[in-house]
Amino acid sequence: MKKTPKKKTNKSLFYRISAWLHLWLGLISGIIMVIVCVTGCIWVFNEEITGWLQPETKIARQDAPVIQPSRMLEIAAREYPGKAASYAIYREDRVIEVNVGGRRSGSTLKLNPYTGEIVSKVTRKEGEVDFFRWILNGHRFLWMPYKIGRPIVNYSTLVFVITLVTGMVLWWPKKWTKATRQQSFKIKWGASFKRVNYDLHNVLGFYALLLLFAIGVTGMVWGLEWFSKGLYWVTAGGKPLPEYTELKSDTTKVADSRLPLPQAMDQVWYQVAAKNPRATGFYIGFPDTAKAASTISMIVYPSKGQYYNNIRYAFDRYTLTEIKDNSVYAQPYEEAGFGTKLRRMNYDIHVGSIMGLPGKFLAFFASLIGATLPITGFLIWWGRKKKR
Asked: Which residue of 7, 67, 305, 319 is most buried, as measured by CB atoms within 10 A?
């Protein structure tokens, strides 16, 4: 009995390798990237959704001074005896959020920034998180133990970025004709389900490719140390990424402490606020009372809804002298080199806020398309498998 000869293909070896990688890497990482992309869609608008669902958290700007950190500490101590305030966040036209009992999952007081009145009080048990923190946990480590889930998400994102590149190879027509342009750029809505599904994968994947590539690369910056250092080295002209060093107060100066912590916080607040009169937001980091070397930290946000050009300060909790570091945030954004600027824009690029609200919408729709690609790709593969 004669064997049926294999059908010859005129596809290049590069194309066939790309097709093989696109298929199997897509199948391996598919379900993970659906979760990562969907949770990313939701997280992009976490501040806007919170403001919409909780209108009481919006406070119109007034021509009056914002309450001092000492007042925040006083209210936190009264409402949560025995627990220390970790940090406070103030955004223009919003309440002040004071975290008490833990930097990640502590309870939260929301205060009127001008009167100190308690707008809301959320008390959480150990390990309990709010909805958006739960969404972020899924986005970062799939609600698994961090050391297990985080590498899975990181390397799945790397695989996803590779599938984007191979997808571009498969999308590119061998010849540009009127028919190939129609097929490459338009969805044929009146066709069969199989054809529409193929177009959704092929056409939408092309339109979202650059945005998804940027989102994927910026996501890997946080998760893959070798990638983070390599990308900075390339973009900074061969300079190594500055190593993170924990800033510490000088514990030999405890006796030199002239002010109690609340008054020391106020002094730092006035000093930083005077330097940044047009700031649209502040992060106030209270020193950890359980750690003698803990510092007072302040972050200033000059632009509403953006973080790349923030200005960071750290102070010795005993002498109130400013402590300088050597991180990418050590110098003003305007004075930084290209690689440092790009690194500081990483979060804003990731969520689209680098382009304001329109950028967030672009990131939302790109992530939504990203969530559909593994599904439409699987249906294409399954349909061809059944046909064979």
From this structure: 67
What are the tens digits of pLDDT across the range 53-111? Answer: 989 999 998 888 999 999 999 999 999 998 999 999 999 999 999 999 876 667 999 99
Q: In whole angstroms, give the CA distance from residue 67 to residue 136.
A: 30
For 95, 106, 108, 233, 326, the CA distances from 296, given in Å and listed in that order, are 22, 19, 20, 31, 17
φ and ψ at residue 373, rounded to 5 degrees: -60, -45
Give the up-direction half-sphere exposure of residue 30: CA atoms within 13 A in the CB hemisphere.
16
Which residue carries 């972050």 as its tokens? 299
Encoded tokens for 103:
């930097």
Structure tokens given for 174: 């061998």
Residue type, position 338, single letter: F
Paired tokens of 226: 């070798």
What is the spatial distance between Cα 355 and Cα 242, in angstroms, rounded to a whole number? 27
Kind of pairing, strands 107-111 and 118-122?
antiparallel
pLDDT digits (tens, 9 = 90+) for 343-369: 999 999 999 999 999 999 999 999 999
Q: Which two tokens stand for residue 297?
A: 């930290």
Which pair of structure tokens corresponds to residue 302? Answer: 């000059």
Close Cβ partners of 217 (under 8 Å, ≥ 6 residues apart) = 161, 231
Judged against a pLDDT cut of 90, whether residue 4 lies above it is answered with: no
For the residues 125-147, what does the mean pLDDT come to?
A: 91
CA atoms within 13 A on the CB side of 331: 9
How large is the angle between the packed helices 193-223 and 356-387, nearest 10 degrees?
A: 130
Is the pLDDT at 7 greater than 60, yes or no?
no
Q: What are phi and psi of 372, to 5 degrees?
A: -85, -25
Rounded Cα gap, residues 286 and 295, in angstroms:
8
